[in-house]
Queue: 2 jobs
Job 1
Amino acid sequence: MASPVSVYSNTRDPQIRTTARDSLKMDLLANVSLLPGEERIIDKDVIYICPFNGAVKGKVLITNYRLYFNSVDLDVLVSLDVPLGAISRVEKMGGASSRGENSYGLDITCKDMRNLRFALKQEGHSRRDLFELLFRYAFPLSHGSPLFAYLNQEKFPENGWSIYKPVEEFRRQGLPNNKWRITFINKNYELCDTYPTVLAVPFKSTEEDLKRVATFRSRGRIPVLSWIHRENKAVIVRCSQPLVGMSGKRNKDDERYLDLIREANDTTKLTIYDARPSVNAVANKATGGGYEGDEYQNAELVFLDIQNIHVMRESLKKLKDIVYPTVEESHWLSSLESTHWLEHIKLVLSGAIQVADKVSGGHSVVVHCSDGWDRTAQLTSLAMLMLDSHFRTLRGLQVLIEKEWISFGHKFASRIGHGDKNHTDQDRSPIFVQFIDCVWQMTKQFPTAFEFNENLLLTILDHLYSCRFGTFLYNCESARDQNEVRTKTLSLWSLVNSKMEIYLNPFYTPESGRVLYPVASMRHLELWVTYYIRWNPRIQHQQQSPVEQRYRELLALRDEYLKKLEQLQMSDSSSTSSDLANSSAPNASSSTPPKKYLRTPL
Amino acid sequence: MFSGKPLKPTFKCYLPPVQTDVNKTIEPPLRKLEPRLLSGEIVVNEVNFVKKCISTDNSQDDLWGKLICTNFKVSFIPQDPPQKQRTQLFHLLLGEHDIPLTCLDQVVTVNDLKGKKKILSSNQKLKFNPTELILYCKDLRIIRFCFDEAGPESARKVCLAIAHYSHPADIQLLFGFEYQGRRYHESKEERLRSSTQRGGALQVPIFDRSSDWDREIKRTSASEWRVCSVNQKYAISPSLPEHIVVPASLADQDLKQYSSFYNDGRIPMWCWSNRDGSALIRMANITDLQQQRKIEQRIFSAIRKSHPQDSEAVRLELDKGLPTIQEIQSAFAKIRQICVLDPFEETEERWLSSIENSRWLDYVRVFLRQSAEIVYLLDGRNVSVILQEEEDRDLNCVVSSLVQLMLDPHYRSLTGFQSLVQKEWVMAGHRFLDRCNHLKKNDREECPLFTLFLDCVWQMMNQYPAAFEFTEAYLTVLSDSMWIPLFSTFLFNSPKQRTQLLTDFAKNKAIPPGEDPAGFFPAVWEWSQQFSTKDQTLFNNPMYVGKGSARVQNGEVKTFRRTKKVYSSTVRGTSSLPANGLKGNGERRRSSLVSELKPDFSPVKVESPSDRFFRDWFSQPADQHGVLIPLLMPSHVALWKLFFLRWVSEACIPNGGPITTYHKLSQLVDEIDILQSQLRQYKGSSPGSTPLPSPSAPPSNQRRMYFKATPPCDPSTVPDVFTSSFPFSPVGNLCRRNLQGTPIGKFLNGAKIWLSTETLANDTV
């Protein structure tokens, strides 16, 4: 009995074409679909030590983009399709003299919650070439070669790079207005090298003010507007920590600048959300940072207790331990609790809820953490998702990610370590994964409020690692410009927007203006099993989102009936009256009131 | 709606009329607060100027009104008619603020000034005037009343009355016996006119007559089994139904003889047969150990003969390895404590481990796993399975019904499910009276086994949302119905008790002999007793794939069509066990089955045939109309939120929750139904002839879906009242004591388990 295991990424990827060139030469690998620009590097007979099916004989193929494996044994159909970008570590296991069956081979750790083990024949250094090639192509940046995104020759009807245009987005929000202006002071990344070129700042602040404020904010990341409330004009402003230091330095310009933000919508108090736990904020003083003190008049400071990147990294590592390869059986819930993953999710979400609540109550807020590119991005983007229904559309989410994450310098390169062999790098951390998890939690609580479905979130996370697209490469806009990402690579949104229907949530009911407040309680937060446990073959058995599937089937049935009815009515009307036949244009047939009534839009 | 009639009620009809000035003018400034009484219901005590606490934190929303105790319920009548939108189902027999006396778990009186509290039971004295009354309900509500402004003496009397009347001395004092008697006579003519059908509109078989069993035998093609009436007049066992199904090769005389050796005379009883002939059988322990071997040999060989392949049966002793009654009760008490009693914020941090520590989900998983293993035996190995339990009246009920739910799609239809409960619980002698503790006589016998079963069903439904005809709202409402003593379903301990009491009842109420008990004391399955036709549509699952399911229609049984067997070949091919590897294997399996929850995948070890069976099954897409096996990884067994958290306002998601998709699905299905009926009208008319002028929708009262298809852009469709608690509302249904500072607060805070009568009684004044 065949049990196909994890032919995963293919199922969601419509753009792969089949190359039949070497089909005769390599039976097993004959149906591998390669991307344009993808090239075969090596193939080899190996044994895949599958944690679910045991040792599986088969053939592995390495290309400049992926690792592909297919089993020989027809009894257990196992295939693997792993983008090399998802690999964080390749190690040799066992030596030439190791005893025991299948003890000699390669051990591969992946960034996407799985590990792979291959065993090879012990004689003749059989693994040497495989190891070396895998190492070279999995970590191209460590070998001075380009990432696959630069070799990818795919073509898409839509250009995803044009999804986000800062000025257009500001205009959508109603900016500039008499309180806020757009500035190009950073067009050469001179004010701040990790910020985008276009910024929105208080109308009353001068370019000189901005420069002086920049000296008092970590890495020059000054407070700038992320979002403005259409009615009450309250704003979400983001920045990095003030450079207070041990001596408790003050900066009048910074103080006045924050007060300008408050003034802009005439509220009495500005709320500053420091995402960190207060102890961390205090500790940051030692390295020159800190937080806003009492000298900031008309401002209140709230700490949101969200832990730093190191804590999050360790938390996800613990989570992996209890879900892969097997789900911890005996004390599942307490093990899950001890990873603290959901607790962190809860803190991030409840921080964002506080921000959103404050803003919808008409009060402007400033959000920062230390550098303002991790926790700050999480908080502002989640709050915007709660406040602004536009960001809950398929394209809106892309804009949100482009804006709050990519353009504002979330350090994707450092956090993910694209193409870099240094797997122990302390800069790596799943901050963006955590954000997507939070979005998923929101979609679970409000299943009709988002235009996109789970499939989109999974696709985003897959390509966060894959290096097939330029979208998540590099740490900031200045580096992207230098490396010509937008001209030499493709955007993930080109893929997504060229095949939108598979990412759409059929339950979506647009409701503009509604603020969504998820319940950030352990009672509702769930482990995202279809992501974290997806390599488990038993999960794959279950249809992805059966409720959504069923709804699609019913929609198709409805359309079929509508069509039949229309045909019947048409044949009727043509036989009885020629007048009615004229009205048989699609969607028309308004001869009977119920018909009109039934035209519910999809 | 299509033919231009005035809008039929939408969900909004359960809300107070929107801004009707009429209402305002009609309403007198000071209403006389009259309770709504059922026929036969009498007010025993009442007190005015009572405050019902709505929220723990502030008294702003508190309601003033009258608290009443009747012989059926505790009722609160608010002075001001509710202004808030209500989202819950409209119950025909109970008001928003009513609690049936049988639903009360604990009646606690408090005097804040003196720092005293007391749990009241029947015939007790109360030495202080209560300032507060807290009612802990079996449906997990917690209702609080304050007597600050009420007459102290009358408040005390009402509390004592509530305590007294919630502890009836005898089952016949339960209000159902009064109510149904009156109802019978009052609605006689109506009944004659409509000739009510047994078991409600859906004709649920009650299994109190041989024809119900006969039909079940035919439906499952269990040709080697026969209905036997050896237990007529309960001659051999008071807890078995009068008609049971036994191997065709056993004579009545033998059965009579064997029965004396079985606990309570409960000889093996057939439950169900699989398509290839393997049967599911349940029985009690043999009490006479000397005879055991001999009798078992005979009975097992008869069961073997009833198998088309003549293969021997596997016997599983369920009380070895499954949790005990006490363990299940204690797990439920703990999870209830965590979900509704403990302060919300304090439980957040250790929520997951607290849930784990309650063990409730473990037990849910163990029962599902046990049942899945039996599915393997019946379906994968095609051997008959005998469930053995000391009394055959508790664990066997859960397991046998779950196995049938997994194997037979018929039981996933609404009628099928209800007949399953009749067959494996009610008529199989589950002691509902004791397990529900309706008389509050013996707390030790109390056990939420049926609730556990419903939770297991919910887990299946959660994983296979299109496989069941009914919804989780249905399961929840069914569980609530256990605490309303008006239906014959959950009142009795055994079929014999049922027959006896209903015969006495008929005699006392002058009901002519020969009348069908199902008619004069209806089962819960007659849902029209509790809900309007419209509200009952909330039970319908719009996702249900119901094609081919067996249905009793117009008294005729459609053949039970099962999907093709997918796994049999594999399993036969790979199973290294002999085709009939029987009792010995049964012994071996028993040890590995039950308690041992091994990892789902242990590739290094040799895969057992059942693991292989499950792996093969899970490697195929699930067929909603075939065998369904739940995923049993702990990550896939979830807390049933609607049941456990529906009253918890802090956990309530405004404008969200599963109802939002349910809403869209049912609107779509309603539209499809309308289209179907229009198409049918077209097809009905012969070609060429003029069709009906305007094809219309089915009349509103025949529509299956709660939410109707609506024209686009209709503002009235914006579902403002949706919350994750829908169709229930947490407002005023869960009011914990504000724990800060008060002596009672300290006490409740320290109580780590649900307060048992004993612990509290010792602690009183």
Job 2
Amino acid sequence: MEKADHLSMKDEPEVQGEPTKTAVHLSTKDRPKVPGEPTKTGTSMVDTAAAAVQSFAPLNQIHQHLCAFHFYAYDMTRQVEAHHFCSHINEDMRQCLIYDGPDPNARLIGLEYMVTEKLFMTLPDDEKKLWHTHEWEVKGGFLFMPGVPEVMQRQDLEKVAKTYGKVFHFWQVELGHELPIGLPNLMMAVTRDGQLYPEMIKETEKQFGISIEKERESRAYMKGPEHGIHPLANGGGKGLKLELREVDIKPVESVPRVFV
Amino acid sequence: MASSGDEDQVPPGDPVTVSTLVIDAGTKIMQRRLPVKQMNTHVSTFAIYGGDMSRQIETHHYIHRVNDEFLQCAVFASDHSDAPLIGIEYVISDRLYENLPQDEQKLWHSHAYEVKSGSWAYPRLPEVVASPELKNIAKTYGKFWCTWQIDRGDKLPMGAPELMMSPQGVGQGVLRPELVKRRDEKYNISTDELKQRRAEIAEPEWINPMADYWKQHGKCFVLDIVTVEMNRNEKFP
């Protein structure tokens, strides 16, 4: 693969919301550095004390690291390697924090909710289009759990293949943003071959020592949602974008208040 | 649960099965989950919906300090193990904030009042230990996107994210006393007492008027989901 296909983030011009014509994605080496002074000893001591005495029940539930790829719901050509750290809130729903890498100082760039088909079907039609399918992400071999034997991964991914996901990203790291500026973006995931950049996939395979092609064969037996992929999911095939609107705030007198 | 006091199950769904528990236990051992382990501070505070400032919620921030001027937080509705993940907040220093474009500055809220009034609290952490950090936080700005509106009864995350505002001492920013009282009882703290003890924390010399945009301008922001032509290099889906 020719290196020329990669955009060095330093050279990438600021894209102001317009769809881009060239490939936009990141290799891990190019990720922007967050500006700011290094943590002072005084503040790190507060962190240490807090970590010792506070409780972290919601975080302790985060049991799983999934790696996959997302692209923008209005621009497939902007693609991001997404590291999901997930907890089961119950058997029918997972919630995941999304980082741009597996390392300790990875940026928290978004979140994803994953629900079973059963729950997805209860959503209003307008809501369904915001959710994407996981069938091809799993069956195609693109979604994997770093460090977990494939046989064990498959036991869980059989379930994931039938689910729907809703992802928002708040930080456009692939544009080189050093800070999380701009609006949230709804994201989608791979539904067929030819969508993801081959050089991006190759790099991920190399970094995590996996073979998507090989794993695809092992997952051929898996099935997607029982009722098939819902036609309204995946944006209903349309691009979706979030736009900011200014609204008047209600005068305080109209706000119901209970004074004790 | 957040602020509704609703005992209904959020979200709906079956209890986690044994086979799932076994897989989860296995991956938890085998996978390092390094970024998640960096979240080592729990903050209890409150937030207000930009789209409807009559709606106020209790929030639980789990904070990862990336450096002295930038924090990234996972925000949950409670501190229980099955707490819904309701959003993400970023916190930056006043220095980084001043360098942002003006249109971006409008999306951020100030933290001075939240700290000084005692809303921003560290459960179980002695106030004297938290004190140096409180001085830092008072000067920061936050940008909080809420993705699951449990207080309005959403069983599942619905719609677009909401931009959240911080509590303030005036107008729509004033917190409902019963919301604060419930939090205080849970953690056996007194917001009023924290407020008095924090009187000595200096007010920032300057809070940028672009922050807390609603205070100066009487306007807030909401997100609309619009259908557009998708820029694509292959068919979708």
